[in-house]
Write a structure and sequence with these properties.
The complex is a heterodimer of chains A (116) and B (108). Chain A has 116 residues and is mainly beta. Chain A is built from no helices and eleven strands. The model of chain A has no long low-confidence stretch (mean pLDDT 92). Chain B is an all-beta fold and 108 residues long. Chain B has no helices and ten strands. In chain B, a hairpin with a 5-residue loop joins strand 8 and strand 9. The chains are: A mainly beta (116), B mainly beta (108).
Chain lengths: 116, 108
């Protein structure tokens, strides 16, 4: 089954304790992206990756890191989490279309992070 | 990057047609328009995508005028299960900006 898998689904942790949220897709998609979702703010893009070893900042990259060493994986790293990073996080992937077409994204089920 | 504007919320009744309009005045020549549906505690799910004129699939239609500065998602004969948040997305494959979404509530 084609899917985007995020782990963990839920995490409660404390300020300053490094954490990683993993994301894996089995569709051989070139494009992957991370979003955070907060009440009243919709989905905001954190980082995206056009392909292996190519990553770029989205709208709200501060406090986050990503890596794309393999095509299927795109982990989100919080080196020193703070309470304002408490949010619902989604990973997504898509094929890379022609002429900058925005190919439909497949989203994971989300990771709810609480930073105390 | 094209910023999108949608109504925050809409109410409807079962069996009615619902039209949700999204404004995107700064849309670029190569940008496509994509709509997603999101249920609580789930990731967004693709509904429909278009570039210009009209696109129809088994669940919705998308109307895009010639100037492409807006688009309208049309849901025919909604049911209670269509209660969700609907997002309009405009952009190229890289940096993407979702709007705040429209919360659609379908009542019996």
């Amino acid at each position: 089954e084609a899917q985007v898998t995020q782990n963990p689904r839920y995490l409660i942790t404390v300020t300053g304790k490094k954490l990683t949220v993993t994301c894996s897709q089995n569709m051989n998609h070139e494009y992957m992206s991370w979003y955070r979702q907060d009440p009243g703010l919709g989905l905001r893009q954190i980082y995206y990756s056009m392909n292996v070893e190519v990553t770029d900042k989205g709208d709200v990259p501060e406090g986050y890191k990503v890596s794309r060493k393999e095509k299927r994986n795109f982990p989100l790293i919080l080196e020193s989490p703070s309470p304002n990073q408490t949010s619902l996080y989604f990973c997504a992937s898509s094929r890379q279309g022609h002429f900058n077409s925005n190919q439909p994204q497949h989203f994971g089920d989300g990771t709810r992070l609480s930073i105390l | 990057l094209a910023k999108t504007t949608q109504p925050i919320s809409m109410d409807s009744y079962e069996g009615q047609e619902v039209n949700i309009t999204c404004s995107h005045n700064n849309i670029a020549t190569n940008d496509y328009i994509t709509w997603y549906q999101q249920f609580p505690s789930q990731g967004p799910r693709f509904i429909i995508q278009g570039y210009k004129t009209k696109v129809t699939n088994e669940v919705a239609s998308l109307f895009i005028p010639a100037d492409r500065k807006s688009s309208t998602l049309s849901l025919p004969r909604v049911s209670l299960s269509d209660t969700a948040v609907y997002y309009c997305l405009v952009g190229d494959i890289g940096k993407l900006i979702f709007g705040q979404g429209t919360e659609l509530s379908v009542k019996p």
